[in-house]
Design brief:
The complex is a heterodimer of chains A (150) and B (148).
Chain A (H helix, E strand, L loop, with lengths): L2 H4 L5 E5 L4 H13 L4 H13 L4 E3 L2 E2 L2 E4 L6 E11 L9 E10 L5 H15 L2 H9 L3 H11 L2
Helix pairs in contact in A: 2-3
Chain B lengths: L7 E5 L6 H15 L2 E9 H10 L4 H25 L4 E8 L1 H11 L4 E5 L6 H17 L3 E5 L1
Parallel strand pairs in B: 1-2, 1-4, 2-3, 4-5
Helix pairs in contact in B: 2-3, 4-5
The chains are: A alpha/beta (150), B alpha/beta (148).
Chain lengths: 150, 148
């Protein structure tokens, strides 16, 4: 499944307010909680962040964690109203976020890795990053991702 | 006060048999130096071009396959390093391997690059891969550790 097909408008959070990493993750986690305990999911993601930031540089972060209760990868796209200090790899603050929850089972690992690869490929393009920064609506975000993913 | 030589270590993985040995070496140095480990995989344009000549797959199909193989290597390294308590970040880039390794090391202010020196490969592929490692050693602005 394409990334754009797995993202619906309710999995896109535009111009959220966050002063620090915890706020940003808190703003992104709600669409993927989906029946799980929010605090548990949040704690797992923050614990992962403590073991190394998922800010991959160039203003992008891909917080990700695998949970036993998850069957399929679940993705949220977010854009911060102001860049957030995310302790990123290049020390630059982040504005664009893909939060990914994946399953722990070995059988389902393939789908999770494919999702991570798709996000990585998409975010390597400066033009795509720039378009996502300028997108005016959730549907425009989906259109940009659809037009720029392989 | 205890002085650590390296704060940021760049581990280069390619999904080959060498990855485990290279990873162990990088993790050991990260632990000894209380350093952050940045694991990099480069989707190799030279490999894409070579596979394109040898197969009927499109460039995009080959690229996606290599990206997924790269993510497997990144994911394995991330899990392994995390289990040992090493702060770890993962990153995939696309291009000519030696150029990407050198430029990422500069961009991310890396203190030490750790990569493998391939030996168990067929002739031409081995020479190409070894040539890449030598270019990194020659042109990197930081220290380079080669694992055999």
């Amino acid at each position: 499944m394409k990334l754009s097909e797995s993202l619906s408008a309710d999995h896109i959070v535009l111009d959220f307010e966050a002063k620090k990493k915890d706020d940003a993750i808190g703003a992104l986690v709600d669409p993927v909680v989906n029946g799980f305990d929010r605090d548990t999911v949040l704690a797992e993601i923050l614990e992962r962040e403590e073991l190394g930031s998922t800010g991959v540089g160039q203003g992008v972060a891909v917080p990700h964690v695998r949970l036993a209760a998850i069957q399929e990868p679940s993705v949220v796209f977010g854009r911060a109203a102001k860049p957030v200090d995310f302790d990123a790899i290049d020390d630059e603050p982040c504005s664009l976020f893909f939060l990914v929850l994946g399953p722990t089972s070995a059988d389902a690992q393939d789908g999770y890795l494919k999702t991570m690869a798709k996000i990585s490929r998409l975010m390597r393009s400066a033009e795509t990053r720039s378009k996502l920064m300028a997108a005016a609506s959730e549907s425009e975000v989906i259109d940009i991702i659809a037009a720029n993913e392989a | 006060m205890e002085e650590h030589l390296y704060k940021k270590i760049l581990l280069v993985v390619d999904g080959s048999d060498m990855d485990h040995a290279v990873m162990e070496s990088a993790i050991a140095r990260a632990l000894a130096n209380k350093a952050r480990l940045i694991v990099l995989n480069v989707v190799d344009h030279m490999v894409i071009n070579r596979l394109k000549r040898l197969s009927e797959q499109s460039t995009a199909e080959i690229e996606i396959e290599l990206e997924e193989k790269g993510w497997k290597a990144l994911y394995y390294a991330e899990e392994h390093a995390k289990d040992q308590g090493v702060p770890t970040m993962i990153l995939q880039q696309s291009g000519v391997v030696e150029n990407e390794v050198i430029s990422e090391a500069v961009r991310l202010k890396i203190d030490l690059i750790v990569l493998g020196y391939p030996r168990k490969m067929p002739g031409q592929a081995k020479r190409l891969a070894q040539g890449r490692v030598e270019k990194v050693v020659e042109n990197a602005e930081c220290s380079v550790l080669i694992v055999r």
